[in-house]
Amino acid sequence: MSKNKSAAWETARKRWLRYVQTTVKAIEAGKSIPIGPSRKPLVAPRVSARKAAPATVVMCSPHPDDESLIGALALRFRQEAGARVVNCAITLGSNISQKARRLGELESACRALGFELIVPDQPVGLDRVNLANRRDHREEWAAKVETLTEIFEREIPDVVLAPHGEDFNTTHIGTHFLVADALGAYLERHDRGLFPLIETEFWAELKQPNLMVGVSAETLALQLMATAEHGGEVKRNPYHLLQPHRLMNNVRRGSEVLGGQGGAAQRYFFAELYRVTFMKGGEVVEPRPGSVIIGPKEKVDVKGLVGKFLPEGA
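^ thats the sequence. predicted structure below, dont judge the formating
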């Protein structure tokens, strides 16, 4: 290799090394930001009042911190359309000795986001929310289903968010089926027509996402602030510091999975992917074919978004 070629190679290598090192420094810098729960409560500002009654969004979160990590769309519904967001914390984790601590962190995170909080069977939450319990302990599972069904009856949601059925973690998967069972029971008791269920992802990618939601730096910062309120969890695994990179990867993936193979990347840095589907009674109804991409500067509201996915003739 000639000296000129060698020098060019080394110059390029150093430039990219500085880029990687700058990325690492940014993550390291986040470690200096105190984690929660904060001594002084972080209270989200009220959203502007709307003429119409606000939509009710119920987000069924498998664990404390999921409401912050996968809640970008719910947060945008609140910020941009004045929606009432209710976080239903399905479990407080499986460690009984840590439930009080996790509840305190969860309350602090929801306060920071402006979300209401419901804990089934408060103050302990549900336990053994998994497919094995659904299969082998039918009476116990039926009681869980009834508990969540009653929450839906009380809150009267306009849309429900829950993990998809292959989201790797056993409680995430269990939460999907618990929500499907309870929502089906609720809809069979009350004639609501087609009802929107928005599936989320965290541990495993959705196989067929049909909604890409851009996330602004300001919205992402709120998510990180709320996630950091789960101090005990982010000490174990710094989800909050790596969250921006997960959302960056979603832009890479979503731009082509939803926008078309070989298409241009969206011109923003952060996004979350979802799958919008519907239920009618206990049956799943497939949405209109196609996908929707919403940038971080486009206004979003529940009715308008759901309407983009309604099956033809619905």
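The chain has a mean pLDDT of 96.
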